Amino acid sequence: MGKLTEILTLAQQRGKAMGLPYEGALTPPEAFEVLRLAPGAKVVDVRTRAEWDWVGRVPGAVEIEWNQYPGGARNPNFLAELKRQVDPESVVMFLCRSGARSDGAARLATEAGYNDCYNILEGFEGDKDANGRRNTVGGWRHAGLPWHQG
């Protein structure tokens, strides 16, 4: 079994254990490996424009807001933008700040016919630590994966 198959199988088992209606759940390092190993795989970053500009971006990610900024209303064009930018046959890995909005996006994409959807657990910033700060426990940035500011 190749490294890619191994990672996806683990993510699928994790997804089943969590009762997810989509393909599975990946840790940030696993998602980065899938991005590296699977031709056509995409990270879809569903955070807001403000988060991309002020917190950081994942190089090469498809950026589609799940909630619009400012105001926080759900983006009514999310699915149309996803269909325009991402092939439904691709491995699609959704990313947000902590893993909640990306779960919603993976659910919606699956309902819309995307069969290979994964949520990136911990998100870009990870969970808050005991002092209420992010980027110290889990997440894409904390794992030392590629990102850039603004």
Structure description:
The structure is a single chain. This protein has a single domain, classed as Oxidized Rhodanese, domain 1 (3-Layer(aba) Sandwich), CATH 3.40.250.10. 35% of the residues lie in helices and 11% in strands. The protein has helices at residues 3-18, 28-37, 49-54, 78-85, 100-111, and strands spanning 24-26, 42-45, 62-63, 92-95, 117-120. α1 (3-18) crosses α2. The longest helix has 16 residues, at 3-18. The chain is globular.
Low-confidence stretches: none
User: How many alpha or pi helices?
Assistant: 5
Question: Architecture, according to CATH?
Answer: 3-Layer(aba) Sandwich
Main sheet strand line-up: 1-5-4-2-3
Largest sheet: 5 strands, parallel
Order of helices and strands: HEHEHEHEHE
**Oligomerization state of this entry?**
single chain
Structural class: alpha/beta
DSSP summary, beta strand count: 5
Could you say how many structural domains there are in total? 1
Tell me the fraction of residues in β-strands, as a range. 5-15%
The CATH class is identified as Alpha Beta
Topology:
Layout: H1 3-18, E1 24-26, H2 28-37, E2 42-45, H3 49-54, E3 62-63, H4 78-85, E4 92-95, H5 100-111, E5 117-120
Parallel strand pairs: 1-5, 2-3, 2-4, 4-5
Helix pairs in contact: 1-2
Pick out its properties:
single chain; about 150 residues; alpha/beta; Oxidized Rhodanese, domain 1; 5 strands; about 35% helix; globular
What's the short version?
With 150 residues, this protein is an alpha/beta fold.
